[in-house]
Amino acid sequence: MSETLRIDGLRAAVEGKEILTGVTLNIQRGEIHALMGPNGSGKSTLGFAIMGHPAYEVTGGSVHLDGVDLLELDPDERARAGVFLAFQRPMAIPGVKMADFLRHATTNVRNPERKEGEDLISMREFRKELREKMEQLRMDPEFARRYVNDGFSGGEMKRAEILQMAMLRPKFAILDETDSGLDVDAVKLASQSIADIGGSEMGILIITHHDKLLEHNRPDFTHVMLGGRIVESGGPELAAELHSQGYDRIREKYPEAAAAELAMQEEAAPVS
Amino acid sequence: MRTDIRLFQLNSFALPTATEATAQLPAALLTEGLELAGRTASIDSCSVHSELSQRWRDQGVLFGNLEQLVREHPDRLQKHFENPVVRSDIDLFSALSAACWSGGTLLYVPRGVAVTEPLHALAGMTDGGVDLGRILVILEEGAEATLVCETASGSETDGGLHCGTIELVVGARASLRYVNLQNWGEQTWHFAHQKATVDRDAQLQWTIGALGSRLAKVNQHVALVGPGANAQVNGVMFTEQRQHLSYHTLQHHEAPSCHSDLLYKAALQDHSRTVWRGMIKVDAEAQKTDAYQRNDNLMLSADARADSIPGLEIEADDVRCTHGSTSGRVDDEQIFYCRNRGLTRREAVRMIVTGFFQQVFDRITIESVRDSLGGAVARRVREYD
């Protein structure tokens, strides 16, 4: 049986304001999905809601991974169940070395039943694998000794996220604007890295504004989000169209969603 | 009033007597993996163990029970008692310590002798007991040593009273690494006056770890008395429940061209409180002083409170003196990020707290001390909702 991340009618609110108004999306392992949409359409919210960010309250719908109700799980249990979110803006953890952080994370994700205080995976084994993955991603070995995201450049942060994805080997990964803030070369490298790491094992949801990241990761499906829901799905040609022509056609075609988008933006805007 | 000791009843404690020496010694935290030149242990100020390897005895090093050694070697120690580093007339507690001290630990290293392995002193206390220990370290000119001291109760919940003195005399060109871990039970009162004098071109690295006690009131004073003296002061504090730790530090530059660098970091849990009041004092003759002090506090609960009061008092006109202080909470976004990578909430907080202390740990050059102190701190981090 192929494994599926099944998102069904998901609704989510932040501070009482509904941002997701019913998202339905199925991703099989091995598939690449692109999620596009204008700013504020709810793309990042979808990632956070799936991962269980405490500020995002799920108000309806469901998310299942192979029949397991993810919404019933704590955020770390979701990670151990096999979902991963590459942050648009990863957090710095000063004083904690990348290698130590990743060894702990890798141990937990690979042994989902591990209790606190139980042994970590062997240092030797871990170091070897980390070194290999870093070589594959063309990263300086010194990187492992630096503190997590502390003083990293934008490009370094995004590559560090991809490295973590490579070590944690999730079943499903959501990449939230892994291309944002990167120059053309860095996006190219990120795109290549995702392709190297993802392979046929992973189901990937790529949230992006641009089609550059999709160059090496040709999506099987493209989805357009507007006003908190997916209004249209298609193949890779849809991503290309949106990148070159923007969202005017989508807004015209889905006036209700466009109205919802407008309403959300007005609510979010400061009172003048 | 920042530190309230009105609940402290001196009358409820008695002077330590020799009869309690049969009690079980608390386990030492910092000795794992350390090859020691010598060790001492006491309970309620009574010496129960004392050893120093022959190699160092042959070179004239003295290490062991202060009360006993001062009787055996008046020739070398009398002058220090006639002119003590810590004055007795500072307050009630300095007077009590001067009048009633008992037991204690002495380390004396003669001129030019470098003790290559660390020495360890453990002071234990029984529940409701009293420790009036006094630590005296004298490094003569050019001597070197590392002393690791621990104070601990038999159990985490124990009460008692510690009123003590630490005196470190670092002679010209001598080098002392001194570690002091305070890990009394959570009902114990801890009062201490601690002072080091660092002479010409000498080095002092003084690291304190403060984990225990109900209330601690500590004065830590480093006097740079000879030109070119260098002192590094490190502090790691972790408080919980209703603990209250108050540290007054003074970096006193009495001589020119000295360097002092103080870094205190505290993580606070539950309703606990810390007070750090730091002073850099530069005398008129102490030109070319380079002094720094910094205090960072990490609040692990909304009910904890940290007071951070840096201060400068400068009479010379050619100096560099700087200070800094930060207090902040663990960021929920940091925790979520860690959880997103499979760490439980508590593992995440532990990791963030350990990272917070890393800057101090990086300065502790004794690996076993660094690891044990890090482990002891991490174990205390609890889960919050």
Class of secondary structure makeup of chain B: alpha/beta
> Are there runs of chain A of 5+ residues with pLDDT below 50, and where?
none
CATH hierarchy class name of the domain at 4-89 and 171-268 in chain A: Alpha Beta
- On the 0 to 100 scale, the average pLDDT of chain A is 91
Number of strands of chain B: 20
Fraction of residues of chain B in helices?
A: 10-25%
Q: Which CATH-level-2 architecture of the domain at 4-89 and 171-268 in chain A?
A: 3-Layer(aba) Sandwich
User: What is the number of E strands of chain A?
Assistant: 12
Distance between the termini of chain B: 31 Å
* Rounded average pLDDT of chain B: 94
Task: Provide the succession of SSEs of chain A.
Answer: EEEHEEHEEHHEHEHEEEHHH
Count of DSSP-assigned helices of chain A? 9
Q: If you compute it from the alpha carbons, what radius of gyration of chain B comes out, rounded to the nearest whole angstrom? A: 20 Å
Gyration radius of chain A, in Å? 19 Å
Number of domains of chain B: 1
Major sheet summary line of chain A: 6 strands, mixed
Describe the main β-sheet of chain B briefly.
10 strands, mixed
> What oligomeric arrangement do these chains adopt?
heterodimer
Give me the strand/helix succession of chain B: EEHEHHHEEEEEEEEEEEEEEEEEHHH
Unreliable segments of 5+ consecutive residues of chain B = none
